[in-house]
Amino acid sequence: MKSMQSSKRRPLLVGNWKMHMTVLDACHLAADIAKNCAGLEGRDVVLAPPFTVLSQVAHIVADTGVHIAAQNVCWEAEGAFTGEISPLMVLDAGGGAAIVGHSERRQIFHEDNGLINKRLRGAIAFGLLPILCVGETLDERENGQTCKCVEGQIRAGLAGVGATEMAAVILAYEPVWAIGTGKTASTEQAQEVHAFIRNLVAEMYEKDIADQIRILYGGSVKPDNIDALMAQDDIDGALVGGAALNAQSFGRIIHFQEI
Question: pTM for this one?
Answer without folding.
Answer: 0.95
